Records
---
Amino acid sequence: MDTMKKPVRVAVTGPAGQIGYSLLFRIASGAMLGADQPVELRLLERAESASSARLTGTMMELEDCAFPLLEGLSAFRDPVEAFRDADYALLVGARPRAPGMERADLLEANARIFVEQGRALNASASRDVKVLVVGNPCNTNAMIAMKNAPELAARNFSALMRLDQNRAEAQLAKKLGCRVADIDRVAVWGNHSPTMAADVSFATVKGEPVAGKLDAAWLHDEFEPVVAKRGGAILAARGASSAASAASAAIDHMRDWALGSGERWLTMAVPSEGEYGVPEGMVFGFPCRTEGGVARPVADLAISEALRARIERNVAELALEAEAVKAFLPKH
Ligand code: NAX
């Protein structure tokens, strides 16, 4: 008897890019949704010729892997078609910062993409679609897509801050000489930008609090800046921005959202419902738990004054980003 589940549709944008090149193969292998879950990949790229040619090559390689779980593979130019009945959408493609481009120009160029993709999801995706925005500035891009998809629940939308959590856990494990798997309750609050608040005030190793084991100078002078500036350090070392680690974090994010986190904490940027003083609708990194496909920030944490101030800096930064793109948000 065939015990396989029905295939699910996974839409991925920017599949010809460097994150796409790591991500697609892991989705198709079953790393994201499990070894018993067939997937149909629906890829959305720009028509620009270099991307098109690279996409053809990537699709040839996907075929050549002969993944038993890959039940469909198609490419689209039109987001409404790419997202039709999608159960999952990983929005990776975005406009990179070009030399001389101001931050406001970058926000605006991306806003146009995420207005279009939010509307397209609203028009054609499954009503339960789980959307992960990876393309930067990912929190604000996710907020724009969400606001332009009024028929979908706000909490169907999220942005990637799992890479920041994974980076924080890896640094902590190195410092404490333990396994990453022994660590839990590390959180990264706020915006996926150097302002992010990597926080170990609730962190545990093998269930024991780490708080007493770390000195304040290491936390302040090494841990926090290393995590916040890791993207820049990878770029300097590799001559290209983080790709495999970003793809791996996107897999972790979607897997834990779809299959459940249990008691473990995972950092996801989700639209605030007013938790911890974060304005409603702001897509903000919180420590979350997931159950039954629903992600919720961990409730009732006793936040220190210092952490509160860091959360407020992130709120202020995201409010400025929202102000810069307000022309792209529906007026209601
Ligand atoms: P690449 O420039 O290698 O690839 C981007 C791909 O997206 C290109 O193939 C491009 O043609 C395509 N694209 C652009 N606009 C599109 C659109 N409207 N529809 C469909 N496809 C479109 O970038 P890559 O290194 O893969 O990074 C992708 C995005 O992830 C960037 O915005 C990057 O800043 C962001 N990142 C986010 C991270 C996070 O933790 N949230 C970490 C890694 C990464 O920096």
---
Amino acid sequence: MKQDSFIPLDFIERTDDEMVARSAEFLQLIQQRRSVRDYSAREIPRQVIENVIRAAGSAPSGANMQPWHFVVVTDSAVRARIRDAAEQEEREFYNHRASAEWLEALAPLGTDERKPFLETASCLIIIFLKKFSFNASGKQFKNYYTMESVGIASGFLIAALHNAGVATLTHTPSPMRFLNEILDRPHSERAVMVLVAGLPSEDATVPDIARLPLEEIASFIDG
Ligand code: IYR
């Protein structure tokens, strides 16, 4: 039942032709997105970062709890600490923790424990998931579908950055508890990923990998 106050939906209805054209245009734009590991020193305007985080914050979330927090880091001393801690975890991962099967799956990407982009890219956006929220009087509320919600918001963020002309890399050192400590975030939050954002270096390369065709990722059960 509609109990709270409701307002009219602001929605632009498009013709079929417009829908097809817009979907094709977006497809072309988003298919150009690649995960980038080689960055130039060029800085991204703060306003771009603020706008893309606003875009991410507009994502749907369980019960509209908006269970996310974004920490933007440009400070070089903090970045050095993050790189140091991340590379320590990555060394463990590549030398001990990862199974042979996992290392084999990663081989085409050419990744290893060295993460220079954590210091060279314009900024890092660390995405935290909030298991709980607190109201003005400090009462704790459980958030719902947090992983799904933060996943959607992260997708919005990556797409918004790409649309603005900013390259990204989703970096997931594991475990990521060190980020709570370095960035002074509470225990009710957990880092989900480090989103590296910046401009690619002139000699940037990316692995020669392909995306699955539509037939392999979708089925249509038509009526
Ligand atoms: N976190 C490691 C390993 C890694 C894991 C996956 I799955 C990737 O798609 C890429 C890397 C790293 O960042 O190197």
